[in-house]
Amino acid sequence: MTGLVIDKLSMRFDLPGGGAVQALQNVSLDLKQGELLSVLGPSGCGKTTLLNIVAGFLAQTEGEVRLNGKPVHGPDAQRGMVFQQGALFEWMSVRENVSFGPDMKGTPKAESRKTVDHLLDVVGLRDFKDKMVYELSGGMQQRVALARCLANDPDVILMDEPLGALDALTREKMQSLVLKLWKETGKTIILITHSVEEALLLGERLVVMAPRPGRIHKEYRLPFADLGVGADLREVKKHPDYAPTREEILNMIWNMEEEIMGRSEESV
Amino acid sequence: MVQIFQDLGSELAQLFLSVLGAFPFILGYLALILLSMVIWRFIRARMDRVRDYRSLKTVTFGDESAVVSDKAASVISIVLIFVIWGAFTGSGWLPGPLHAPGPFVGQDKFTYTIEGPDGTQADATVFVSVYRQGEEPAPLEFDAGTGPVKNDSVEVQAYRSKLISWDANDDVTRKDGAKVVAVDGRAIDANTDVDVGFGRVALTDKGTLNFEPGQGWQMESIWLPAPDSVWRRLVSVSADGYQNVTLAEHLSYSLFRVIVGFALGALVGIPLGYAMGLSNWFRGWFDPIVEFMRPVPPLALIPLVIIWAGIGEQGKIILLFLAALWIMAIGARSGVSGVKITKVHAAYSLGASKWQILRHVIIPNSLPEIFTAARVAMGVCWGTVVAAELVAAEKGVGKMIVAASKFQDTDIVLMGIILIGIIGFGIDMLMRWAERILVPWKGKG
User: Fold this and answer.
1) How far is B434 from chain A (nearest CA, A)?
2) Least buried of B140, B167, B168, B333, by fewest C-beta within 10 Å?
3) Any idea what the CATH number is for the domain that residue B265 is in?
4) Does the beta carbon of A83 lie under 8 angstroms from any beta carbon of chain B?
5) Where would one find the signal peptide in this protein (chain A) (predicted)?
6) Per-residue pLDDT tens for A54-100?
7) Distance from B377 to chain A by nearest Cα, in Å?
């Protein structure tokens, strides 16, 4: 049984001043090997909490996460993470960063070197292998983060707004790169983003989450990710379904935000 | 309580007055700074101008990046310190015309007038010879004269004063009721003294004359030795030592204490800081201890350490260990706390174990903070060792200057202070250099 199963996941914690927060309620998702899921939602809808539970950094209070049939307890090398920024080790060169996973496993350098070199070629950092990471631009640093994650060959890649800190042009290039890597490696990917466009372009499946309590509001199956592999993403945006879907989701999130605002105004 | 406030208030008033007295000197120094700036700008305006980006900025006042240390100002400032120092100490390194007026040295004379018990007045002359410290007074041409009051002679060392028993060789003495009424024709009494041009003459309560040769503007070497005499002392002390201990020995002992004390403090403090950064229990256990000990200045521990461990090496090393310990522990603790959680999460999800996280993430990430702490700790240790040696030691640079001060060898005191400064500066430079080499990623996270 391969794939990632998120089974009736709930998470609730007490606040120091009394009261409790229901961060997630009854979230269930079933991802087959090689699926790309993007997660959207207004702030406070629990999408990062969900990702952290799947990664094993947080514990759920109810339900279970199972990867290939085995329940998840704590972080391990099967689920790689790509963060927004600042997760690279600046005391290491680009190559050392990418080979961190194999090194920790005790893979001999001679063995991992080929993989590392190949991955750095794939992400387009052929000439930057021996640079220190702080000498690289933000976009290049995210390429290193992607390569570092892939070098460890995880079953699932969890991305927490990986392109959020990049400028618009770099972001577009990186979106193409993510699609390319997804198709070439066949990894299961969960991508959290604030950008509706990014969620549409990169999500084979897309879930919109709603806040208080954090739950799945609506799920879509989209053709754009498949269309976008190896293609110009701006062409994909001309697809007749693209603009209506975008407007629909934007409205949905807009209404949720309005509702949150209204509710907090009432409570004042 | 009221008494304390009154006492402190009068201290404050005195302090204010002495600051007021120093004000002309401060203004003079400020004028020198501005004058040299104007002169340097004038010179530079005639040289080839640098046309870099910064030179094209029109807003420089308030732009922090546009303010860089002017090397010329640094050079002039240091040269000026030596020039002022030399000028007011009569240094041989400085050409004579730059010297401030020195003390009167040589021979001169003044006359005094006495009034006898019967009201008759008579004049006599005092021949004065003023000589420098360490020199023989030149032979004085002295003629006792033929008048009713005989001439007198006096030999005084510069910066000292001397009583003149003018009646010792006279027929009419103070016992008979004779007294001095004028010097160089100007009236004198117990309250007013007379400036004779090369010094001052005063009248004591007992009626003798007190002569004080003019001091000029130069400092006596016991207050402030000339830079060249400090240099000569450095040469002689490094060759022959001072009080049977060589300079190298003094310096090595001080440095030895600092290095050993600091190394022990780091050896214990860094693991302690890591433990505090990684475990709730250790953080809770040591927080009160560290937070209490940190504000206690190491100097305040000197008496206790002397009581416990005596004045030998052990006591000083304990002191320096304590001086470094808390600084290093706090540095290591904040280094661990400063690790971004995303780095730790990333490492865990790349399959690293706890030990590997410590070794490959936490330690390298905390090194910059530890280096900063080490620089501070080395500075504190260096200051503490000198102070501890001032209090009690057999060898060490602090011991050297305190011993010299007891014999009023101010040039050795000054030499010691300069050496302490240079070594402290050198230690800091060394630490910065090591930091650049060992943690090039500092501030790049």
Assistant:
1) 16
2) B168
3) 1.10.3720.10
4) yes
5) none
6) 999 999 999 999 998 889 998 988 899 999 887 899 999 999 999 99
7) 24
